[in-house]
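Exercise 7. Given the components listed, write out the predicted structure of the assembled complex. Treat all entries as one system.
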Amino acid sequence: GQQLNQSPQSMFIQEGEDVSMNCTSSSIFNTWLWYKQDPGEGPVLLIALYKAGELTSNGRLTAQFGITRKDSFLNISASIPSDVGIYFCGSETGNQFYFGTGTSLTVIP
Amino acid sequence: DADVTQTPRNRITKTGKRIMLECSQTKGHDRMYWYRQDPGLGLRLIYYSFDVKDINKGEISDGYSVSRQAQAKFSLSLESAIPNQTALYFCATSDLHPSLDTQYFGPGTRLTVL
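Answer.
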């Protein structure tokens, strides 16, 4: 099945730095979702985007739905140690669900 | 208490063994899902159920079966486990609206098949 292309695969950053990651697809989607997965836990929805060009924030997180509807990015500002985890994107068409391969984020204090 | 629980949380088994992973939810949701997660791959849907009498195959159902014993319980079985079924398995639930943004995920079961 189709997977969403996510980059980078991993990031190692200093506490306080900003982070950016993105997802792309060859197909057009009407929804882009961003999740965080902590070690030993299930994915938790962070931000949902429903409209091309939409920019949505959730605290220090900001995500945007690309104009072409084939991509989305997630920014984390002023990273803190608890931002550590795997972030991945998701989308859907009908009953078909698609997920990115994940970006593993390590924050160095 | 967690809304979506999975048991066991970790399991190591041998090739050819039958194994069952269980999922229970207290959210009162009708819809339940089983996914697997492999390193370098996104989540993939195995099976889903819209109510007790409804079972549907997902993207990668071969080698798996499911049972929806009640609204709150959805079990995933591997009749004869093989090493490439080693993965992290997640259960999820959603209410009447089946869209991805309404799904709540359990904490996962890490399965290793030797």
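Discussion: The longest strand of chain B covers residues 44-51. Chain B is about 0% helix and 55% strand.
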